[in-house]
Amino acid sequence: MSSLQCLLLLGTASLLQAACPNVPVFAEFDPEKFSGVWYWTEWYDNGWISQQIPNIMSCVTSNFTMTETGNFSVELKWDNLLTEQQWTATGRLVQQATPNHFEASFPISFMIPNGQFYIIDGVHRTWAVVYTCREILFGMSQIQTAWILHRNPNGRRQRNALAKRWELKPGLKVFIDADKFRRFNDTEACSTLD
Known about the structure:
- This protein has one domain: Calycin beta-barrel core domain (Lipocalin).
- It has helices at 3-10, 31-34, 48-51, 53-56, 159-167, 170-173, and strands at residues 36-44, 57-66, 72-80, 85-95, 101-105, 115-123, 127-136, 141-150, 181-183.
- It has 6 helices and 9 strands; from the N terminus they run H-H-E-H-H-E-E-E-E-E-E-E-H-H-E.
- Strand 4 and strand 5 (101-105) form a beta hairpin.
- The relative contact order is 0.22.
- It has an 8-stranded antiparallel β-barrel with strand order 1-2-3-4-5-6-7-8.
- It is of the alpha+beta class.
Protein backbone atom coordinates (compact mmCIF):
# COMPACT_ATOMS: atom_id res chain seq x y z
CA MET A 1 0.00 0.00 0.00
CA SER A 2 1.43 3.39 -0.93
CA SER A 3 1.81 6.26 1.55
CA LEU A 4 -0.87 8.22 -0.31
CA GLN A 5 -3.35 5.35 -0.01
CA CYS A 6 -2.59 5.06 3.69
CA LEU A 7 -3.21 8.79 4.22
CA LEU A 8 -6.50 8.63 2.32
CA LEU A 9 -7.69 5.66 4.37
CA LEU A 10 -6.90 7.31 7.67
CA GLY A 11 -8.66 10.57 6.80
CA THR A 12 -8.75 12.39 10.10
CA ALA A 13 -5.74 10.60 11.49
CA SER A 14 -2.47 12.46 11.61
CA LEU A 15 0.75 10.64 10.79
CA LEU A 16 2.83 13.59 11.97
CA GLN A 17 1.58 13.53 15.56
CA ALA A 18 1.47 9.85 16.45
CA ALA A 19 0.54 9.97 20.13
CA CYS A 20 -2.68 11.42 21.46
CA PRO A 21 -2.05 14.84 23.01
CA ASN A 22 -1.94 15.57 26.71
CA VAL A 23 -5.38 16.95 27.49
CA PRO A 24 -5.67 19.53 30.27
CA VAL A 25 -7.70 18.73 33.36
CA PHE A 26 -11.15 20.35 33.29
CA ALA A 27 -11.23 21.32 36.97
CA GLU A 28 -14.90 22.36 36.91
CA PHE A 29 -16.08 18.99 35.57
CA ASP A 30 -18.80 17.44 37.75
CA PRO A 31 -19.87 13.94 36.64
CA GLU A 32 -23.27 14.17 38.36
CA LYS A 33 -24.12 17.43 36.61
CA PHE A 34 -22.85 16.04 33.29
CA SER A 35 -25.25 13.08 33.52
CA GLY A 36 -28.38 13.21 31.39
CA VAL A 37 -29.48 13.90 27.83
CA TRP A 38 -27.28 15.84 25.40
CA TYR A 39 -27.82 16.86 21.77
CA TRP A 40 -24.73 16.71 19.56
CA THR A 41 -25.13 20.07 17.83
CA GLU A 42 -21.68 20.70 16.32
CA TRP A 43 -18.97 18.42 14.90
CA TYR A 44 -15.26 19.07 14.45
CA ASP A 45 -14.10 19.39 10.84
CA ASN A 46 -10.61 17.92 10.85
CA GLY A 47 -10.50 16.06 7.56
CA TRP A 48 -12.34 14.33 4.77
CA ILE A 49 -13.90 11.60 6.89
CA SER A 50 -15.29 14.05 9.44
CA GLN A 51 -16.75 16.10 6.59
CA GLN A 52 -18.96 13.12 5.68
CA ILE A 53 -20.68 13.15 9.09
CA PRO A 54 -23.55 15.52 8.13
CA ASN A 55 -24.22 13.37 5.05
CA ILE A 56 -24.46 10.20 7.10
CA MET A 57 -26.21 11.15 10.33
CA SER A 58 -28.41 13.72 11.99
CA CYS A 59 -30.27 14.18 15.27
CA VAL A 60 -27.48 12.71 17.37
CA THR A 61 -28.43 12.45 21.03
CA SER A 62 -26.88 10.76 24.02
CA ASN A 63 -27.90 9.87 27.53
CA PHE A 64 -25.02 9.65 30.00
CA THR A 65 -25.95 7.74 33.18
CA MET A 66 -23.46 7.82 36.03
CA THR A 67 -22.90 4.47 37.76
CA GLU A 68 -22.10 3.88 41.43
CA THR A 69 -18.41 3.56 40.56
CA GLY A 70 -18.19 6.99 38.90
CA ASN A 71 -18.21 5.56 35.39
CA PHE A 72 -20.90 6.24 32.77
CA SER A 73 -23.18 4.05 30.74
CA VAL A 74 -23.99 5.81 27.48
CA GLU A 75 -26.85 5.40 25.04
CA LEU A 76 -26.37 7.08 21.67
CA LYS A 77 -29.16 7.56 19.14
CA TRP A 78 -28.95 9.06 15.68
CA ASP A 79 -30.83 9.13 12.41
CA ASN A 80 -28.84 7.25 9.78
CA LEU A 81 -29.39 9.26 6.60
CA LEU A 82 -28.24 6.38 4.38
CA THR A 83 -30.76 3.84 5.71
CA GLU A 84 -33.39 6.36 6.85
CA GLN A 85 -33.60 4.54 10.19
CA GLN A 86 -32.77 5.48 13.75
CA TRP A 87 -29.71 3.71 15.10
CA THR A 88 -28.79 3.10 18.71
CA ALA A 89 -25.48 2.17 20.31
CA THR A 90 -24.76 1.60 23.97
CA GLY A 91 -21.37 1.73 25.59
CA ARG A 92 -19.52 2.74 28.66
CA LEU A 93 -17.01 5.30 29.81
CA VAL A 94 -14.58 4.11 32.50
CA GLN A 95 -13.00 6.82 34.67
CA GLN A 96 -9.26 7.28 34.27
CA ALA A 97 -6.66 9.43 36.08
CA THR A 98 -8.58 12.73 36.11
CA PRO A 99 -12.31 13.41 36.58
CA ASN A 100 -12.82 14.48 32.93
CA HIS A 101 -10.85 11.55 31.39
CA PHE A 102 -12.49 8.24 30.46
CA GLU A 103 -11.77 5.13 28.43
CA ALA A 104 -14.61 4.66 25.91
CA SER A 105 -15.87 1.23 24.91
CA PHE A 106 -18.61 0.94 22.26
CA PRO A 107 -19.55 -2.04 20.06
CA ILE A 108 -20.23 0.40 17.19
CA SER A 109 -17.31 2.78 17.44
CA PHE A 110 -18.08 5.11 14.53
CA MET A 111 -19.51 7.93 16.68
CA ILE A 112 -17.17 7.61 19.62
CA PRO A 113 -14.00 5.71 18.78
CA ASN A 114 -12.97 3.21 21.43
CA GLY A 115 -10.12 4.88 23.26
CA GLN A 116 -9.57 8.08 25.21
CA PHE A 117 -12.67 10.22 25.86
CA TYR A 118 -12.48 13.64 27.52
CA ILE A 119 -14.98 16.27 28.53
CA ILE A 120 -12.68 19.24 27.94
CA ASP A 121 -14.88 22.26 28.57
CA GLY A 122 -18.42 23.35 29.19
CA VAL A 123 -21.15 24.63 31.43
CA HIS A 124 -22.99 21.55 32.67
CA ARG A 125 -26.48 22.98 32.45
CA THR A 126 -26.14 24.14 28.84
CA TRP A 127 -23.18 22.88 26.76
CA ALA A 128 -20.05 20.72 26.79
CA VAL A 129 -17.15 19.91 24.47
CA VAL A 130 -16.09 16.28 24.21
CA TYR A 131 -12.87 15.10 22.59
CA THR A 132 -11.81 11.57 21.67
CA CYS A 133 -8.49 10.18 20.61
CA ARG A 134 -7.58 6.64 19.65
CA GLU A 135 -4.09 5.54 18.73
CA ILE A 136 -3.98 3.19 15.72
CA LEU A 137 -1.39 1.35 13.66
CA PHE A 138 0.52 0.31 16.78
CA GLY A 139 0.74 3.90 18.01
CA MET A 140 2.04 5.32 14.73
CA SER A 141 -1.08 7.42 14.22
CA GLN A 142 -4.35 8.43 15.86
CA ILE A 143 -7.97 9.27 15.12
CA GLN A 144 -9.34 12.38 16.80
CA THR A 145 -12.93 13.59 17.00
CA ALA A 146 -14.59 16.42 18.89
CA TRP A 147 -18.20 17.44 19.38
CA ILE A 148 -20.13 20.24 21.00
CA LEU A 149 -23.03 18.89 23.00
CA HIS A 150 -26.00 20.98 24.09
CA ARG A 151 -28.86 20.34 26.50
CA ASN A 152 -31.28 21.91 24.01
CA PRO A 153 -31.39 20.91 20.30
CA ASN A 154 -31.96 24.59 19.49
CA GLY A 155 -29.02 25.69 21.62
CA ARG A 156 -27.06 28.64 20.35
CA ARG A 157 -23.88 28.08 18.46
CA GLN A 158 -20.82 27.80 20.72
CA ARG A 159 -17.93 28.08 18.24
CA ASN A 160 -17.36 31.82 18.62
CA ALA A 161 -17.77 31.73 22.39
CA LEU A 162 -15.23 28.89 22.56
CA ALA A 163 -12.66 30.82 20.55
CA LYS A 164 -12.83 33.69 23.06
CA ARG A 165 -12.95 31.37 26.08
CA TRP A 166 -9.99 29.33 24.87
CA GLU A 167 -7.83 32.44 24.59
CA LEU A 168 -7.70 32.12 28.38
CA LYS A 169 -7.08 28.35 28.18
CA PRO A 170 -4.24 28.04 25.67
CA GLY A 171 -3.79 24.33 26.39
CA LEU A 172 -7.10 23.59 24.64
CA LYS A 173 -6.54 25.62 21.50
CA VAL A 174 -3.21 23.86 20.92
CA PHE A 175 -4.96 20.73 19.69
CA ILE A 176 -8.47 21.98 18.84
CA ASP A 177 -9.22 24.99 16.68
CA ALA A 178 -12.66 26.28 17.75
CA ASP A 179 -13.18 27.74 14.26
CA LYS A 180 -13.38 24.22 12.82
CA PHE A 181 -16.63 23.30 14.56
CA ARG A 182 -19.55 23.00 12.13
CA ARG A 183 -23.21 22.97 13.10
CA PHE A 184 -25.47 20.09 12.12
CA ASN A 185 -28.12 21.37 9.72
CA ASP A 186 -31.30 20.18 11.37
CA THR A 187 -30.85 19.98 15.13
CA GLU A 188 -34.02 22.05 15.56
CA ALA A 189 -36.04 19.18 14.02
CA CYS A 190 -34.75 16.58 16.49
CA SER A 191 -37.09 15.19 19.10
CA THR A 192 -36.06 14.40 22.64
CA LEU A 193 -34.34 11.13 23.44
CA ASP A 194 -36.97 8.47 24.18
